[in-house]
Write a structure and sequence with these properties.
Layout: H1 3-29, E1 43-45, E2 58-63, E3 72-77, E4 85-91, E5 94-98, E6 101-108, E7 115-121, E8 127-132, E9 136-142, E10 148-156, E11 166-173, E12 179-180, E13 187-190, E14 193-195, E15 201-207, E16 212-219, E17 222-229, E18 234-240, E19 243-247, E20 253-259, E21 269-275, E22 281-283, E23 295-296, E24 301-306, E25 313-318, E26 326-329, E27 332-338
Parallel strand pairs: 1-4, 13-18
Antiparallel strand pairs: 2-3, 2-27, 3-4, 5-6, 6-7, 7-8, 9-10, 10-11, 11-12, 13-14, 15-16, 16-17, 17-18, 19-20, 20-21, 21-22, 23-24, 24-25, 25-26
Length: about 350
């Protein structure tokens, strides 16, 4: 092909790409074409803080509404979750916060492929230390003091429902920047005996304090609730068939997703609550498949995500097994209660 002809072909190809990009922007920005922010819940740009607020407790989450504000952090009053949401940067795929410290797991879009990072946020959402991630973000938690943050990423496979996946769970000291990159290297005690296996996976940390936490451990095709100790670097099994635990504010119960016999392999989980003193478990009133790490709004109520028109919605249900689910916030994911 002659040089002049090749140049014309190149110019034509660039023109097509530019036109496609412009059309994508129009689809995103113009509500009349179905992609604008007006197509989702009411929102306004403003200041979002992870610190105390004069108006009381708030719910901060990843906004999932269509348009240019998708994936930005958003907040609503906890007492009025249906209110107009306030939206601010940064963009987060997964998020959690406590005591004025946040952890934001982000996608960094490249020419050929995306990669991911964890970013520590202060109370005013200023970005601090950054850490490259080994895979796709799936879970994040901050300890009640704000001194520790944990995250889990997928490094193979794409679902807990299958067997072809691997996780990496890390714990970060947000004060010093010291990082424990992989909890799978810690000493495991399973049913009272030391355990070491190549198929061990750990995910879904929930903190009790700056030394103690709970998480899921999987090995041999089974899962357990484990108690973790950051000083001793140990994981000890407590109860079987527990995934994505979430510790209640009073420290007495664990909300989690449980595989229930007889359900479809594509939707095997129901939301349960475990009493840590008695190890008695009770199902909640949510009868749908819950593939999420639930959040305690208070000592009585759980919040969790389910698929929605914009990707995900947040729902709530009483933790004591009474009542039924209710829509909490539409077009939202990865919440944290900020007080």
């Amino acid at each position: 092909m002659r040089y002049g002809h090749r140049l014309l072909v190149l110019i034509a190809a660039v023109a097509v790409l530019v036109a496609a990009g412009a059309w994508t922007v129009l689809l995103t920005a113009d509500p009349a074409r179905g992609g604008g922010s007006d197509g989702g819940p009411p929102a306004r740009a403003g200041a979002v803080t992870l610190g105390p607020h004069p108006d009381g407790a708030r719910l901060v989450f990843r906004g999932m509404g269509r348009g240019p504000r998708r994936d930005h952090l958003a907040e609503v009053p906890l007492a009025g979750p249906g209110s107009t949401r306030t939206v601010a940067a940064p963009l987060c795929l997964r998020f959690h916060a406590a005591a004025g410290t946040g952890i934001c797991l982000q996608a960094v879009h490249g020419v050929l492929e995306d990669h991911y990072r964890a970013v520590v946020l202060d109370a005013d959402l200023h970005e601090g230390r950054r850490y490259d991630l080994a895979g796709i973000p799936t879970r994040a938690r901050v300890s009640p003091s704000g001194h520790l943050a944990a995250w889990t990423v997928f490094v193979g496979g794409d679902s807990y429902a299958g067997t072809d996946f691997s996780t990496r769970t890390s714990v970060l000291d947000t004060r010093t920047g010291a990082l424990e990159p992989d909890l799978e290297t810690w000493a495991v005690t399973l049913d009272g005996r030391p355990h070491r296996a190549a198929d061990t996976n750990v995910w879904g940390v929930t903190f009790a304090d700056d030394q103690h936490f709970y998480a899921t451990l999987a090995t041999g095709g089974r899962t357990w609730l484990v108690a973790g100790d950051t000083a001793a670097r140990t994981l000890t099994t407590l109860h079987g068939n527990v995934e994505c635990p979430s510790l209640s504010p009073d420290g007495t119960r664990i909300a989690y997703k449980k595989r229930v016999a007889g359900l479809s392999e594509d939707a095997p989980w129901r939301l349960y609550v475990l009493d840590l003193a008695t190890m008695a478990e009770k199902p909640t009133g949510e009868q749908r498949n819950v593939d999420d790490q639930a959040l305690w709004l208070d000592d009585r109520t759980l919040a969790y995500s389910l698929p929605g028109d914009d990707g995900a919605d947040l729902w709530s249900v009483p933790a004591d097994g009474t009542g039924g689910p209710a829509l909490l916030v539409a077009a939202a994911l990865a919440p944290a209660v900020v007080r």
